[in-house]
Amino acid sequence: MKQSMTFIPTLREVPAGADVKSHQLLLRAGYIRQTASGIYSFLPLGKKVLRKVEEIVREEMDNAGAAELLMPALQQSELWKESGRWATYGPELMRLNDRHDREFALGATHEEVIMSLVRDEIKSYKKLPLTLYQIQNKFRDEKRPRFGLLRGREFIMKDAYSFHSSFESLDETYEKLFEAYCKIFERCGLNFRAVIADSGAMGGKDTHEFMVLSDIGEDIIAYSDSSDYAANIEMAEVVDHYTVSEEKEEELEKVSTPNQRTIEDVSVFLNKESSQCVKSLLFKVDEEYVLVLSRGDHEINDIKVKNYLNAKVVELASASETKAVFGCEVGSIGPISINKDIRVIADNAVKYMTNAVTGANEDGYHYVNVNISRDVTAIGFADLRFIKEGDPSPDGQGKILFAKGIEVGHVFKLGTRYSAAMNGTYLDENGRAKEIIMGCYGIGVSRTLAAIAEQYNDENGLLWPSNLTPFDLHLIPINMKDEAQKTLTEELYQQLKQHRYDVLMDDRAERPGVKFADSDLIGLPIRITVGKKAGEGIVEVKVRKTGEMLEVKKEELLDTIQNLFETLA
């Protein structure tokens, strides 16, 4: 491809609002352009890389026994109402009405559509298992789109769905696709970890996220310093490793704590450690109130609260709701002598506290010498807090450390979550109707492209892995008006294409410095410069990744390039 005939609008300056490397470089190198907040066009270079990522995904999905299809992005609301997610998915679901005032959504995901297809066509256990996938644009109305392709409102996703007559079959496919995902991200050259995760609005359980390690990642990974254990911080189990204090239980006492509203305020005022205070937070759980307790130096994990209570919606009660229920401000609530209709649950660590401090349900007062087993009745205990660095690893090996990650893939065991809601059944070998068992497997294709760009760059631009680069070679004549350079450039361009190299030839009437800067920015693996020694049949070859420079005779160029690509593989 001649550079004058394609569309690569490079930029010298970092665009405003581009806060991370991948976003900056994909914009500056002319791979993408923003058309609206969180919505991007893929320009020719970006489309070529995207196609290569998609090819890897397709190859590994096909090898795992999945079949590709394509479903509509426009989905009728009736299907979402059948599953129950029309009301619960949240504002991220983009909803619209047609001219007949019928409700639709732009596809954020396709569980409902695929279940409606399969339930209408698959009637017998003989047609199971079955795995189907698609690569398609998805739409989610992100509250705060950011980081370019890493968090957008329209993005490209590979979503797959498997259907089974037994959980053993689901386990087999889950493992097969888990391995396929590992191969996909390995072939993309990414430094990633597969971590235990929460299924969120998807439903189901037994789920893993694939996280690309990055300092700009929005997810925190908790991992062991001595084993392969890794989990999203929301799902990392906290080992019940606490010990009972030998301290004598003192008599419960209410004390004045004027204007002390936070754990930090109260602990300083009473000369206590925050770990000696009980944090009390009121949650609305499926429209009922639940008081959740944790130690003052711990943070309550609402995902664990949701899973423990098997709830659909868990949200922190507002300050006004809290005051209406307890008659005091948020910082003064506690578990002693409260309305019996309010359920009380506590993190395991609270069970081991002796002579603790809690709110007294009266502004300006707290209880001291609180002992939960003595002073609080009808309380349940569970792992309800976020894990902390230094905690024991849940697998019993080592301590927990944190890292940041970009989620690029997610696999779920959905079970009968959707078939039960949408009457998705098949007839077993005895002719009895059984609910189809389901799995779900997603990869953010456009996000994967951005994650690659985030990991593969330097101060001059992008550094694409050789199997994902938009072009294999960048052929740059210094001066196309020089007859020797022009002739040699055209000769090499044809020769390299005949040997199946994808070549970008910079035939633009630009200064050499501009061409070289653009070449580094675009990030093709090998640059071939035709310059002052063209008359002697000699060119300069530069390896983008290492900066290595070679002078090569045209007769030796093909062998040299082949050898260089072997070292880059």
Automatic annotation (TrEMBL):
Recorded GO MF terms: proline-tRNA ligase activity
Annotated localization: Cytoplasm
UniProt entry keywords in alphabetical sequence: Aminoacyl-tRNA synthetase, ATP-binding, Cytoplasm, Ligase, Nucleotide-binding, Protein biosynthesis
Family annotation (SUPFAM superfamilies): Class II aaRS ABD-related, Class II aaRS and biotin synthetases, YbaK/ProRS associated domain
Pfam assignment, any one: HGTP_anticodon
UniProt-listed Gene3D superfamilies: Anticodon-binding domain (3.40.50.800), Bira Bifunctional Protein, Domain 2 (3.30.930.10)
InterPro entries found in the cross-reference section: aa-tRNA-synt_IIb, aa-tRNA-synth_II, aa-tRNA-synth_II/BPL/LPL, Anticodon-bd, Anticodon-bd_dom_sf, Pro-tRNA-ligase_IIa, Pro-tRNA-synth_IIa_bac-type, Pro-tRNA-Synthase_IIa_type1
Keyword Cytoplasm on entry: yes
Assigned EC number: 6.1.1.15
Domain Aminoacyl-transfer RNA synthetases class-II family profile residues, every copy: 33-465
Enzyme class: ligase
Domain of life: Bacteria
Catalytic activities: tRNA(Pro) + L-proline + ATP = L-prolyl-tRNA(Pro) + AMP + diphosphate
Keyword Cytoplasm: yes
Function as written in the Swiss-Prot or TrEMBL entry: Catalyzes the attachment of proline to tRNA(Pro) in a two-step reaction: proline is first activated by ATP to form Pro-AMP and then transferred to the acceptor end of tRNA(Pro). As ProRS can inadvertently accommodate and process non-cognate amino acids such as alanine and cysteine, to avoid such errors it has two additional distinct editing activities against alanine. One activity is designated as 'pretransfer' editing and involves the tRNA(Pro)-independent hydrolysis of activated Ala-AMP.
Domains: entry comment: Consists of three domains: the N-terminal catalytic domain, the editing domain and the C-terminal anticodon-binding domain.
Family to which this protein belongs: Belongs to the class-II aminoacyl-tRNA synthetase family. ProS type 1 subfamily.
HAMAP family noted in UniProt: Pro_tRNA_synth_type1
Assembly: Homodimer.
Protein name (Swiss-Prot/TrEMBL): Proline--tRNA ligase
The species this protein was found in: Bacillus seohaeanensis
Gene name tied to this protein: proS
